[in-house]
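Box S1 | Example of a co-folding query
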Amino acid sequence: MSYGRIHNFGAGPAVLPLSVVEEVRDALPNLNGSGLGLLEISHRSKTFQAVVDSAVARVRRVLNVPADYSILFLQGGASLQFYMSALNLLHPGDAADYLVTGTWAQKAVKEAKRVGDAKAIWDDAPNNFKRVPKNGEYTVRDNAVYLHYTTNNTIYGTEFHHLPDSGGKPRVLDNSSDIAGVPLDVSAHDLIYAGAQKNLGPSGLTLAILSPWALARGAAGLPAMLDYRVHEKDGSLYNTPNAFGIYVLERVFAWMEANGGLEGAIARNRAKADTLYGELDRTGFWRPHAEVASRSVMNVTWRLPTEALEETFVKEAKAAGLDGLKGHRSVGGIRASMYNALTLDSVQALAAFMRDFESRHG
Ligand SMILES: Cc1ncc(COP(=O)(O)O)c(C=O)c1O
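Box S1 (continued) | Returned holo structure for pyridoxal-5'-phosphate
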């Protein structure tokens, strides 16, 4: 691989398209012919404003965001959105319901509890988060203002492949680890947020998409940095933004548009997932974590017969140029993250390594 790059299965920050990395390199000394470097240019300059405008337009096109929805670039990661979303949408005495399908959803409901009556109405912790709920397995409370869920559970490797029933209430979505990688109906949600460091760009940048309802819900007197309306009013430039991150995100969306848009990404991700799950299902040696119907296209998790073999797998894989395969400490085992920029070639290299590993250790 060029530049000595190895196969990067890391969960985030994650692999970016090489062409984007090269564009970033070229923009460092001189952004778009301005004579000013990407890290050195004012966020109030015309050159940078054009980057922001283009980023918003591309996100709107690629994700098919309705014209009256707002697209914001924020900081603080998805973790800040756990609290900020509740702070803006929940008023005193209000309730909100959460589908707890993994560690991140647990954190989301915990933060929302600081604001109002947030409740886990479905929680798979006793089953060690092997699946997501089907419609009909939970009931959204009458007084809930919204239903919050997490499309893809980065740590456990489960994913919603349907739009969860919200009992007619607005949906709030943590879309961090599969945004722009799987089908998404933005118009069926009122607030979507995602840390950029998986499918969209570098860490330190958060994308938020809000319906007019979500924007208008913000109570008066919120701290400025936690008030969506403040950021919306100033076009994500209320304070100094992560200018570098916005530039990279704009380039990632340009790369998507040049490569078949969202449909292209979905097809490539499907092919990668079919390759890896095909290998996992070929023999009983591998023990996939997620139930089949809830398997994630983006993060695939599995165990081996012993922890010692898992350690050997990660070590030998690394030596073979396959990095980032150690499972999250709360699940153990192996995790292969296959975000948009990971190529099928990398997944085929992993599958070949797995066949060889099994023939030697199986
Ligand atoms: C689904 C999900 N939500 C939230 C987070 C936390 O994101 P951040 O580190 O941007 O706060 C992560 C990080 O991996 C994640 O995968």
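Residues 12, 77-79, 104, 150, 154, 174, 176-177, 195 surround pyridoxal-5'-phosphate (CB under 6 Å). DSSP finds ten helices and 14 strands in the chain.
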